[in-house]
Design brief:
Blueprint (H helix, E strand, L loop, with lengths): L1 H13 L5 H4 L1 E3 L15 E4 L9 H10 L2 E12 L3 H11 L3 E34 L3 E35 L2 H4 L3 E5 H8 L9 E6 L4 H4 L7 E5 L2 E2 L3 H7 L8 E7 L2 E7 L3
Parallel strand pairs: 2-4
Antiparallel strand pairs: 1-3, 3-5, 4-5, 6-7, 7-8, 8-9, 8-10, 10-11
């Protein structure tokens, strides 16, 4: 029973068969996942550390700035595997960019069983009736093969894999082109003064987007839209900030000073 349990643990670590990137994938369910077209290109980048000290939210904001959206991530331990498995799974979910790290953890030994062929001579004798001569005595031997299972110790080189799958966003998916969060959700990361409690923070602006052209920057705090004071993200939804309509004027707090920006609706 202990041996079976130990083998099961090893199977979980190494993935046994199949694609471990797929088996251990967790989707963020933000953008649609669908297979890449045959002509779709995939950029696979190996780095020392995937997040580089950033939170997941900060990492995705940085990716959005370059026009990419996060699909999901995969974390697992396994013996050495090729980048082809990353590419195959990326094609399956429609990822154009994969950032991954591979850290060597050392040798890992485990017990399993291995089949060894065994050959045995089987001797036979007896009497057979022949209608021409009567009873005939016979004897002889036959080589019979079988398999004997014996315990063996195997060693693998174990690695820690971490990967993030991203897709190149369409103009429709980028929309106006900026990510927004409530102040309390990002106060620490953006070092916002404790006396500021109303407004929303722009955490990322996609290059070339309408928000980029309108002059918004990462870290801007939207305080007012027209004559409406912005309390939180729901205020923007009530105004219909991201809907089609007439252009709007926003008042943003940037580096301690108020600045007016015109929002070109689309």
């Amino acid at each position: 029973m202990k041996r079976i349990l130990f083998l099961l643990i090893i199977c979980i670590i190494t993935g046994c068969t199949g694609n471990p990137y797929k088996k251990n994938y967790e989707s963020w369910k933000i953008y649609q996942e669908k297979p890449l077209e045959k002509t779709g290109e995939i950029d696979i980048k190996r780095v020392e550390t995937v997040l580089k000290g950033l939170s997941v939210e900060e990492f995705l904001d940085e990716a959005f700035k370059d026009g990419y959206g996060g699909l999901g991530y995969s974390v697992f331990r396994s013996e050495d595997i090729s980048e082809k498995k990353i590419e195959n799974f990326a094609k399956e979910i429609g990822a154009n960019l994969v950032v991954y790290s591979k850290k060597y953890l050392g040798e890992h030994s485990y017990q399993t069983v291995e089949g060894i062929p065994v050959y045995t001579n089987v001797y036979t004798h007896g009497i057979a009736y022949n209608p021409n001569v009567g009873n005939v005595y016979y004897s002889g031997s036959q080589l019979v093969s079988s398999t004997q299972y014996v315990p063996v110790i195997k060693t693998i080189y174990l690695y820690q894999y971490e990967s993030v799958f991203l897709k190149k966003l369409s103009d429709e998916e980028i929309g106006y082109g900026m990510n927004i969060e409530d102040i309390e959700d990002v106060r620490k990361n953006f070092k916002i003064d404790k006396n500021i409690s109303e407004g929303v923070v722009i955490t990322s602006v996609a290059r070339g987007s309408q928000a980029y052209k309108d002059g918004f920057l990462r870290g801007d705090i939207i305080r007012n839209v027209g004559k409406r004071k912005v309390i939180n993200y729901f205020t923007l939804e009530e105004i219909g900030f991201f809907s089609k309509g007439e252009d709007l004027v926003c008042e943003v707090l940037r580096n301690g000073s108020l600045k007016r920006l015109k929002v070109k609706r689309f």
